[in-house]
C-alpha cells in the first residue's frame, strides 16, 4: 500500500482521481469501496467500548465508505483531515461554529455565497459574533480591518456571481500575523485548479454538490483542514452530529473519477462561450477570470491551474427596468439552458442574479447580471440557444 500511495502521489491528476480513496486489496479486490450503512457498531468487550479502542464506534463517526471519500479529498487537498456534511452551506457553517465565539469579530468577503451571508447575519449574529464585509479586491488593505478580537477571515475566489479574484496568499499571511483563522470557499475551482492550503488557507470548503458530484443529484459538502486546525474542526463536527450519508459518499467518490475530464470540457466550452459573448454589442461585460479583459485575470493566471464552467455576463443596458425586462425575456426564451440554482452538473443552467445583499461591492450599473453554467452539451448548440435568448431580448 505504501508503494501504491507513493506512486499515486507522483501520478497525473486523472490517474489519481481514478484510484484515490480505496485500495481494492483492502476489500476482496473489488474496484469500488463497499457502501456500508451503519448506525450501531458492536464492540467485542466492555474495555474496548469504554476506550473506543476500535476504528469504528458509531455511524456518525464514519464508515469505510465515508472514510474512502475523506481519504480521497485529503489527497487532493493536501489536508490533515476532512469532514463530510450534508450540503455546501453546512460546509461553511461547521467551521465557522468551530472557530467563533460570542464577542468575536469576523471578516467575510462581500462577494460571498449569499446563504453564507444569511447564516452570518442571522444565526451567528444572534450568538454574539460580529461580521464585517470587505471588498474582494482589498489586498493588503485587509490589515486595517483586523481588530484585536478578529478571529476569522473568510475568503472566496472567484467571488459568487461576479467572480472577483482575491490574493489569497497575501490575505492569509496578513491574517496569520494577527492570529486569525483563514477559511476559503473553493467550490468554483475544486482542488484540481486551486489548492487553498498550499496558499496559506487553514480550512478549505467545497460544495461537493457541484463538480465532485457532477450529475445534479447529490447534496454534500466537504471541509478539509491543515494539521493545526483539524482537531478542532473534527471535534465541532462530532458535537454538531453532522455527517455525510454512505450512499451519497459513494456517489461523490464515483463522480471524482471523471471530474478532471469533465472540468476540462467545462473550461473549454465556457471560455468559448465567454469569448463569443464578449464580442457581442448587446453584452456590456463578461465576468470570467479566464478572460484577459477581466480585472482579476492576472491573479487567476498566477495562482490557478484552470477555470471551471461558471461565469456571468452583464446585459440589458443602464436603465434598470429595461435591463431587467430584457434579461427576463432572454432567460424565458432559452430551451437548452435550464432556469435553476446550483451548477457543476452535466446540464447548462442560467439564473438572474440578485446582488441586493451586497454591502461594499454593489451590483453593476451597466446592466443586469446573468450567471451561466456551461454544461457538457455541444458548445455550438449552447450558443444557438443563447442567440434565441438575445433575439427575444431585442424584441423588448
TrEMBL record:
Q: Which domain of life is it from?
A: Bacteria
Q: Which Pfam families match?
A: Cys_Met_Meta_PP
Instruction: Name the InterPro entries on file.
Output: Cys/Met-Metab_PyrdxlP-dep_enz, Cys_b_lyase_bac, PyrdxlP-dep_Trfase, PyrdxlP-dep_Trfase_major, PyrdxlP-dep_Trfase_small
Q: Which EC numbers characterise this protein's activity in its record?
A: 4.4.1.8
Keywords per UniProt: Lyase, Pyridoxal phosphate
User: Which molecular-function annotation in GO is an example for this chain?
Assistant: lyase activity
Which reactions fall under this protein's catalytic activity?
Answer: L,L-cystathionine + H2O = L-homocysteine + pyruvate + NH4(+)
Cofactor requirement: pyridoxal 5'-phosphate
Q: Which family does it belong to?
A: Belongs to the trans-sulfuration enzymes family.
What this protein is called in its record is: Cystathionine beta-lyase
Amino acid at each position: 500500500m505504501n508503494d501504491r500511495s507513493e506512486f499515486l502521489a507522483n501520478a497525473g491528476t486523472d490517474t489519481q482521481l481514478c484510484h484515490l480513496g480505496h485500495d481494492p486489496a483492502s476489500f476482496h479486490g473489488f474496484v469500488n469501496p463497499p457502501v456500508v450503512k451503519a448506525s450501531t457498531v458492536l464492540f467485542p468487550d466492555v474495555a474496548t467500548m469504554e476506550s473506543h479502542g476500535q476504528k469504528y464506534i458509531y455511524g456518525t463517526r464514519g464508515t469505510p465508505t465515508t472514510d474512502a471519500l475523506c481519504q480521497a479529498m485529503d489527497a487532493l487537498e493536501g489536508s490533515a483531515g476532512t469532514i463530510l456534511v450534508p450540503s455546501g452551506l453546512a460546509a461553511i457553517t461547521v467551521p465557522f461554529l468551530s472557530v467563533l465565539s460570542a464577542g468575536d469579530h469576523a471578516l467575510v468577503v462581500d462577494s460571498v455565497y449569499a446563504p453564507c451571508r444569511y447564516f452570518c447575519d442571522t444565526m451567528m449574529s444572534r450568538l454574539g459574533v460580529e461580521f464585517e464585509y470587505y471588498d474582494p479586491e482589498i489586498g493588503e488593505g485587509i490589515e486595517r480591518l483586523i481588530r484585536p478580537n478578529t478571529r476569522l477571515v473568510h475568503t472566496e475566489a472567484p467571488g459568487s456571481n461576479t467572480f472577483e479574484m482575491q490574493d489569497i496568499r497575501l490575505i492569509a499571511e496578513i491574517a496569520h500575523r494577527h492570529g486569525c483563522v483563514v477559511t476559503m470557499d473553493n467550490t468554483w475551482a475544486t482542488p484540481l485548479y486551486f489548492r487553498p492550503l498550499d496558499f496559506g488557507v487553514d480550512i478549505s470548503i467545497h460544495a461537493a454538490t457541484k463538480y465532485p458530484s457532477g450529475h445534479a443529484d447529490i447534496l454534500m459538502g466537504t471541509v478539509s483542514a491543515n494539521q493545526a486546525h483539524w482537531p478542532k474542526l473534527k471535534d465541532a463536527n462530532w458535537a454538531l452530529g453532522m455527517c455525510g450519508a454512505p450512499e451519497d459518499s459513494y456517489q461523490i467518490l464515483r463522480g471524482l473519477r471523471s471530474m478532471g475530464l469533465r472540468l476540462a470540457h467545462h473550461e473549454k466550452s465556457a471560455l468559448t462561450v465567454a469569448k463569443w459573448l464578449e464580442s457581442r454589442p448587446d453584452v456590456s461585460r463578461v465576468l470570467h477570470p479566464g478572460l484577459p479583459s477581466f480585472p482579476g485575470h492576472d491573479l487567476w493566471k498566477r495562482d490557478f491551474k484552470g477555470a471551471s464552467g461558471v461565469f456571468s455576463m452583464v446585459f440589458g443596458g443602464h436603465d434598470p427596468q429595461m435591463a431587467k425586462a430584457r434579461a427576463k425575456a432572454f432567460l424565458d426564451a432559452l430551451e437548452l439552458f435550464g432556469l435553476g440554482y446550483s451548477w457543476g452538473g452535466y446540464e447548462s443552467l442560467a439564473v438572474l442574479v440578485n446582488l441586493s445583499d451586497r454591502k461594499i461591492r454593489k451590483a453593476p450599473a451597466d446592466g443586469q447580471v446573468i450567471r451561466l453554467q456551461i454544461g457538457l452539451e455541444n458548445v455550438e448548440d449552447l450558443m444557438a440557444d443563447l442567440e434565441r435568448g438575445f433575439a427575444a431580448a431585442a424584441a423588448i
